[in-house]
């Protein structure tokens, strides 16, 4: 199709890259190559739950859910207080449902049950059977079947340009020319330096750790520097509440936990979706204390399954890895858990005003008694009194970095915009590497996968057209 080595070259083999490669082939690009720095296909996408946001799908209709992209657009923009590019978000929500169905047509199977990801008005989260790995496997299989080539262990370190037009990439001395380049290299959660620069709220918690793939080093922020792309989405991404017991990922707090701030006051519904909880914790300086009593801890441990509000179909019912008696006893010895015989003494141990904590616990207990959380409307099924000594408090911070959302600014055709605002010819980007699409409030579960697959497809289609 072109005088280059390949028509479309995709950097990165997560779902954004795989969707781009397959869509490029479907759109007529004959020679498509995916370059991947690691020895395995899939990046963070394969470690992921693969939950995907999309509106107006056949899966929703089958479940009797009346939804459309306009409703998702409204929810998305409102949750993000319009601090995102409206036209790009419009394209995302118009195409996300179609992208969910495209995956379904390719062979991804979803559970019948859809869930609410965050605080939206309709259940829009599609849950794939086999999680993210299954989605990666399906896409990779179709790529191979369609003749897409993969170059694993090939870490791209620069772009090749010709008079301002991107015409290829290079890894060391290996140069490969292309009619168009799609960058889909994921985020930068694995780079402490880039976190500090582009997502300081995630870098500054003191306990920060990242749950994604090794390849999330933010290489693209370095290797695109010469073409001077615009960056968007500073200090955005997703952080989860973490107790510093161990580096085990737990997306939600069990609902029975009561959170108080440094003033010893509650500040939220503890079962809030994680996209909301991230912002609520930020307002508290990213520190809070989980407070509970021995009886509730014992009951939760005996129950054997974590009492999360969110129930993802197919996720095995298991004990919370942190909030059970064995772990709490162990962490007492490491001084990561505080225990006292009275609430007032507990306040002294964690350094919050005694009168505040005592009053907070009284009010919380009244809510548990009446089944009515008069302050934050937590579901009655999670309301537990804090009344049976000993009492416990655990410091938590928003320290688990789940993904990063600052990156190359793209328009609604997934074209990368330069510093001045002009399109950089020949350069497209999709997925976590693109900035400005996922906003200050993560709309999810499913926001990132929705973005990656939808804009991966768009990038592939546009790149194929550009290569022509
Ligand atoms: C445990 C976990 C659970 C999650 N669950 C969900 C969920 O259920 N729903 C949801 O929406 N989001 C979820 N997320 C987030 C979501 O999965 C990711 O944001 C998304 O998969 C990123 O996809 P991507 O294609 O942009 O990047 P990735 O999947 O990370 O792929 C990028 C690829 O580029 C490669 N690469 C990087 N640099 C180079 C280079 N220089 N040269 C060549 N290749 C390079 C990387 O090695 C990697 O393979 C989760 C994340 C994690 C970690």
CATH architecture of the largest domain: 3-Layer(bba) Sandwich
- Portion in strands: 15-25%
Helix run count:
15
Q: What is the level 1 CATH name of the largest domain?
A: Alpha Beta
Number of domains: 2
Averaged pLDDT? 96
Q: How large, in whole angstroms, is the Cα Rg?
A: 23 Å
Low-confidence stretches: none
Secondary structure: number of strands: 19
C-alpha geometry: elongated
Report, as a whole number of angstroms, the end-to-end distance: 6 Å
What's the helical proportion of residues? Answer: 25-40%
Keywords: FAD, Flavoprotein, Oxidoreductase
Cofactor: FAD
InterPro entries: FAD-dep_OxRdtase_2_FAD-bd (IPR003953), FAD-oxidoreductase_2 (IPR050315), FAD/NAD-bd_sf (IPR036188), Succ_DH/fumarate_Rdtase_cat_sf (IPR027477)
GO molecular function, one term: oxidoreductase activity
Give a structural overview:
The chain is of the alpha/beta class. The protein folds into 2 domains: 6-236 and 405-467, 3-Layer(bba) Sandwich (FAD/NAD(P)-binding domain), CATH 3.50.50.60; 239-309 and 317-400, Alpha-Beta Complex (Flavocytochrome C3, Chain A, domain 1), CATH 3.90.700. Helix content is 34%, strand content 20%. It has 15 helices and 19 strands. It has helices at residues 15-26, 43-47, 58-62, 69-79, 86-106, 131-145, 192-198, 200-203, 219-223, 274-283, 294-303, 325-333, 343-350, 354-370, 447-467, and strands spanning 6-11, 32-36, 52-53, 125-126, 149-152, 158-162, 165-171, 174-183, 209-210, 231-232, 237-242, 258-260, 287-293, 338-340, 391-404, 407-409, 415-417, 423-429, 434-435. The strands form 4 sheets. Strands 1, 2, 5, 6, 7, 8, 17 and 18 form an 8-stranded mixed β-sheet that branches. Helix 1 packs parallel to helix 6 and helix 4 (69-79) crosses helix 5. The longest helix is centred in the first third of the chain and has 21 residues, at 86-106. The mean pLDDT is 96. It binds flavin-adenine dinucleotide. The site of flavin-adenine dinucleotide (FAD) has 43 residues, from helix 1, strand 2, helix 2, strand 15 and helix 15. Its cofactor is FAD. Pfam families: FAD_binding_2 (PF00890). Residues 7-448 form the FAD-dependent oxidoreductase 2 FAD-binding domain.
């Amino acid at each position: 199709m072109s005088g280059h080595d390949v028509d479309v070259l995709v950097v990165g083999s997560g779902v954004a890259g795989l969707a781009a490669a397959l869509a490029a082939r479907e759109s007529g690009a004959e020679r498509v190559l995916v370059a991947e720095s690691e020895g395995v296909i899939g990046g963070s996408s394969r470690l992921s739950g693969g939950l995907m946001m999309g509106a107006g799908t056949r899966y929703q209709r089958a479940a009797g859910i009346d939804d459309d992209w306009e409703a998702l657009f409204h929810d998305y923009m409102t949750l993000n207080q319009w601090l995102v590019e409206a036209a790009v978000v419009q394209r995302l929500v118009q195409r996300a449902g179609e992208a969910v169905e495209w995956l379904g047509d390719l062979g991804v199977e979803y559970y019948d049950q859809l869930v609410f990801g965050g605080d939206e008005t309709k259940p829009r989260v599609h849950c794939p059977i086999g999680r993210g790995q299954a989605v990666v496997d399906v896409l990779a299989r179709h790529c191979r079947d369609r003749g897409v080539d993969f170059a694993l262990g090939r870490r791209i370190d620069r772009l090749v340009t010709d008079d301002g037009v991107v015409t290829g990439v290079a890894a060391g001395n290996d140069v490969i020319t292309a009619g168009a380049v799609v960058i889909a290299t994921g985020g930068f959660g694995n780079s402490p330096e880039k976190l500090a620069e582009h997502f300081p709220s995630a870098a500054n918690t003191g306990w920060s750790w990242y749950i994604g793939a090794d390849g999330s080093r933010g290489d693209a922020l370095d290797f695109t520097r010469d073409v001077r792309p615009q960056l968007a989405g500073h200090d955005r991404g997703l952080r989860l509440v973490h107790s510093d017991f161990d580096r085990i990922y737990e997306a939600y707090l069990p609902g029975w936990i009561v959170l108080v701030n440094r003033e010893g006051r509650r500040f939220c519904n503890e079962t809030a979706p994680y996209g909301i909880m991230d912002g609520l914790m930020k307002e508290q300086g990213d520190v809070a204390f989980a407070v509970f009593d021995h009886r509730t801890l014992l009951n939760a441990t005996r129950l054997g399954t974590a009492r999360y509000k969110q129930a993802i179909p197919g996720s095995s019912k298991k004990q919370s890895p942190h909030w059970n008696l064995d772990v709490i006893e162990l962490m007492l010895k490491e001084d990561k858990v505080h225990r006292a015989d009275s609430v007032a003494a507990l306040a002294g141990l964690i350094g919050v005003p005694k009168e505040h904590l005592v009053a907070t616990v009284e009010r919380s207990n009244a809510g548990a008694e009446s089944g009515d959380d008069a302050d934050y409307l937590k579901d009655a099924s999670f309301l537990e009194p804090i009344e049976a000594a000993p009492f416990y408090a655990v410091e938590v911070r928003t320290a688990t970095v789940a993904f990063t959302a600052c990156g190359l600014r793209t328009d609604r055709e997934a074209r990368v915009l330069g510093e001045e605002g002009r399109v950089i010819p020949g350069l497209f980007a999709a997925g976590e590497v693109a900035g400005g699409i996922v906003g200050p409030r993560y709309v999810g579960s499913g926001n990132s996968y929705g973005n990656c697959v939808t804009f991966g497809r768009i990038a592939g289609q546009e790149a194929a057209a550009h290569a022509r």
